[in-house]
Design brief:
Layout (H helix, E strand, L loop, with lengths): L1 H11 L3 H18 L4 H7 L5 H12 L11 E6 L6 E5 L4 E6 L5 H12 L3 E3 L3 H14 L16 H10 L8 E2 H7 L6 H9 L12 E2 L12 H9 L1
Parallel strand pairs: 1-4, 5-6
Antiparallel strand pairs: 1-2, 2-3
Length: about 230
Amino acid sequence: PSTARRQFKRRFGLTFTQYARARRLGAAAKGLAKGETVINAQLNAGYESASGFRAAFAKTFGAAPAKANTPPLFIEWLSTPLGPMFAVCDDAKLYMLDFTARKNMERGFEKLRKVHKRAIIPGRTQVTGQIETELDAYFEGKLTRFKTPLAPTGTAFQNQVWEALQNIPYGESCSYSDLAIAIGNEKAVRAVASSNANNGLALIIPCHRVIAKGGGLGGYAGGLNKKQWLLDH
């Protein structure tokens, strides 16, 4: 059992309990979006207590079950040469892409749920297929710029930094201070570094191309070994 738990967490970035809870509440939110009654969604999700269901739902999605009328987001796990990644999509855009080894991954899911008030359930969309194809081409050295439509979830400042990151040419790098100057705020080096750390669209928004001013790697939420590999690639 302990080996199974470790392997599951390594692959999905979630414990069995977290995964099961997300599936149950995600299925409930999907049913509510299709017009299912709250009591039926509650019972189908396995909650005997109405108050317990409402509390868990509101904590996960930031809204009461009665106000849940939006379609879910879909999460799929993808294999890459650097280890498994996960992609969160709907039918139009990619909301999140990262390595499952990333720390505090569940916090990113929680942010998506609360900001967009949408469930996240296992599944694929056309966008999932597009990013999977592009990732294969990227790791084979055949793609230098992604075309998958994105839906970044950040503040106005973070979105400004992430837009500047996408302007760093393939095969090049810059320092955190260079990036701060690029957005017109040379004193915001720490804020820029923080925005890099909170980038939820790895590789596509290439925060791995930002290194320390002295030439060191700096930080990388996915792990410095991955950052070095990506820079070499």
